[in-house]
Amino acid sequence: MVKSRNFLMGLGAGFLIISVILIFHDENRGITYHWTIDELKKISLEEGYKLYTEDELNQVTIEYEQRLAECQNQKNIKEKEQEIVFEIHKGMDTYSVALYLEGIGVIQEKNLFIEQLNDKKLTRKIKAGTFTYVPTMTMDNLIEMITSGK
Question: 141 with 91, same domain?
């Protein structure tokens, strides 16, 4: 019993001594290193990153937003220039026409289209034919076109 007690005390003392040694052996403990901008840039470039100062980041952000706006403007111009030629066949009902126009991108919401036709009492006035839709057209222009046959 005494032997195992001495053994356990020796083992505990050994753990304590090792712990103290490891604590004092840690060379980086409590040391704060202050990186310079040049050192950070060098390390980040080596890792494949780029560091920006606040002014550089603001400039990059402005340039990005300008390019994004230009792309959006070009997209809007292209969308406005694209005409959609479509054909309404004889015997198509209002729902079929609305579903078809929604499917080809002429209208966004078939239910709104049907509702407007109902409000104007034009659901039975849709003409068969080939029509050309221009994205600048309003819903009223579209309804006028397909109900007048022009």
Answer: yes
